[in-house]
Amino acid sequence: MSVQRPFQQLASRATAQSCVQRSQHSFQGLRIPQQQSRCLASVAPPVTQNATGSKGPTAMVFMNMGGPATTDEVGGFLSRLFADADLIPLGPLQNYLGPLISRRRTPKIKKQYAGIGGGSPIRKWSEYQAAEMCKILDKTNPETAPHKPYVAFRYANPLTEETYNKLLEDGFGKGRGGRAVAFTQYPQYSCSTTGSSLNELWKWRQRLESPTRNPDLSAAEAEGSIQWSVIDRWPTHPGLVEAFAENITKTLETYPEDVRDNVVLLFSAHSLPMSVVNRGDPYPSEVAATVWAVQQRLGFRNPYRLVWQSQVGPSAWLGAQTSDTVTNFVKKGQKDLVLIPIAFTSDHIETLFEIDQEVIHEADQLGAEGRVRRAESLNGSPTFIKALADLAGAHLHGGEVCSRQMGLRCPGCTSERCLEQKRFFTGLGQQKNKALTL
Amino acid sequence: MSVQRPFQQLASRATAQSCVQRSQHSFQGLRIPQQQSRCLASVAPPVTQNATGSKGPTAMVFMNMGGPATTDEVGGFLSRLFADADLIPLGPLQNYLGPLISRRRTPKIKKQYAGIGGGSPIRKWSEYQAAEMCKILDKTNPETAPHKPYVAFRYANPLTEETYNKLLEDGFGKGRGGRAVAFTQYPQYSCSTTGSSLNELWKWRQRLESPTRNPDLSAAEAEGSIQWSVIDRWPTHPGLVEAFAENITKTLETYPEDVRDNVVLLFSAHSLPMSVVNRGDPYPSEVAATVWAVQQRLGFRNPYRLVWQSQVGPSAWLGAQTSDTVTNFVKKGQKDLVLIPIAFTSDHIETLFEIDQEVIHEADQLGAEGRVRRAESLNGSPTFIKALADLAGAHLHGGEVCSRQMGLRCPGCTSERCLEQKRFFTGLGQQKNKALTL
């Protein structure tokens, strides 16, 4: 079940009567905070809104970590990445250690990006996926059309700040209301990834649209801010599972028929520091749910393991490590291995460099004879894009604010930013004692 | 998919013709080792076998860790537990540290068992569940009837050795063949639990029925040993999921209706040392699969977390810890919590003492006002027993030797015992270069 509120009633063309209904509205026990069910009748429609009865336009904002499109952007990308305590917790010395580590790593990482063609393809894929999804939504969900695709990256261009300003330029918010969906492109929720992106989105929302943070806003502008909802996790969406299964099957078909069922599938996800796991981050469990769903779809034909890649630094991270696993299996004589990037939907440095050029290269040096292979990332998969549209379409119809699970902070969480962000996105605003657990 | 071999063809009443078919048999690409498809025509039927065309009797052997039925058994139980490197890896000093720790802990643990009524109820529940399941199987699977219930515990009576000898006394093996199913009562596979039980079963099989280990066996006795198959994991069996969902729903109904959807569900499983997790143990992922399936069945109505309990000793274990989680949530004002034992099917010291008398007691001392509760363990749940029968019935019909996944050792595994055990139970015997990955 999701946390829901009636977006129809939050739309900008309201009547006096619907305002009354709105302020009294409650849904499945979750009362709608007054400031979110306020009357917006006086608010002008967004400039791009069509006048044919649609509640659109709707901004569909794809959130992801992003990656440097050119090697010149690597320095800035890494400095933002190592400054983010949600992603890489470095303790009280974060502001000192972060820049130090990022400066030291920049030359090495520049070479890696040079090695995969000079930059990350993640912007290209994200923009393509968002645009293609919106085309489908315009047909399947005419009531919220037109759907406008946006991309907001956490560490690379287009940054969240840039995208938020673009939304305002395009006619959303600033007194004109309008609806935007923050759609995480991490299928499994982690405070390090989706949580960090939402913290950043909330930060810019406060800076640009909150009257308490931005005194230049007029009363009307403050009233007609963007109405956000969040698609915060989708680890076992059947379309996602199908897209993974298709790409795995394609790769398995490259092996001779008599060994095909004995190929070991290694589902590989970015690891997490144990400090994050032990705080109660939901990511390891949700990644496991994806893996189980994909294996179920494939009929458990092949033996498999979920393994974890891309550990950085000396602290303890969740294992087994992908690279060690491949090395161990190849040394034991199990050379037929398919690596499946299971927690990222587009190619990025961890697939194109770490898996393809490091892990597989090392396996071949140990005698794997080209039998360690990688399933293609979802990238432009039509099945995947259809899944995105299916998921977003249901969200737009359903009036979800976010999942029920998003309201629950990790048991060991002490982040005030996380608390405020969750209060905002779950629609609980300043209601400190609301029923939903924070 | 499972590793299969045709049990029908391994039955003891064979004809000369079926022997030929047998030796040529292959199933879905997995060739049957010669020594397992050998002709058993000369073997006498088990003494308890009925003569009405049934392939039974079939021994249904429930494997679990067990628990001391009286406080006098605590010392022996703990000494076996801390001697088991599969469960508690203490390194090269295991033989020294194990007895030391178990002796030191015995008085404390005795008190805990005294506090839950003088002993563990796990034997009572296991014998009840196995017997009730067999009654159902006798009706649903007449071709393998009668089904005879057995319990084999790893650390308490009835120990695996005792149960194996009972099987031999009852007419299985020793030249009489007969089929036995090793049915793990841990729904999710860990090398620490199911793996350890299988290692123990394999050890006694070798000692009692292998001609290389037991030269007193006659040729006929060695030929007609027990034919084992294994139900090695069932984390998302729909009946299991339904049984959990029922007990959770019952507990949720004890909360007032207006807070019911805001109760946080804490699925609690026994933790693992990080050394085992990092070796690639499948348990954390399979527990997560159970949790996801139960939440899916419940419609994700409530926020939840998967948490881990019962850490012992100073080394790193997988978290977040159950007790810390409850403390943190209660301190933050989230008092409505339901604890769900998700990786064990009967009550035991970790539910009756650790959760009920420690965790919940501490929560109440922090002001939880009785709002932290526990869902009942599956114990005598008819839905659960039906699930066991459903699962076992499908296994008996399907000719499974074990799951496909069981053949794959953990990436970091270096245990020769584990290797040999898997070779035996997957039916690969001495075939060192078989297709299945070991």
From TrEMBL, chains A, B:
According to its UniProt record, the EC number is 4.98.1.1
The family database entries (PROSITE patterns) matched by this protein are listed as: FERROCHELATASE
Q: Name one GO cellular component term.
A: mitochondrial inner membrane
Q: What is its subcellular localisation?
A: Mitochondrion inner membrane
Pathway membership = Porphyrin-containing compound metabolism; protoheme biosynthesis; protoheme from protoporphyrin-IX: step 1/1
Q: Which family does it belong to?
A: Belongs to the ferrochelatase family.
Put simply, this protein is called Ferrochelatase
Where does this protein come from, organism-wise? Neohortaea acidophila
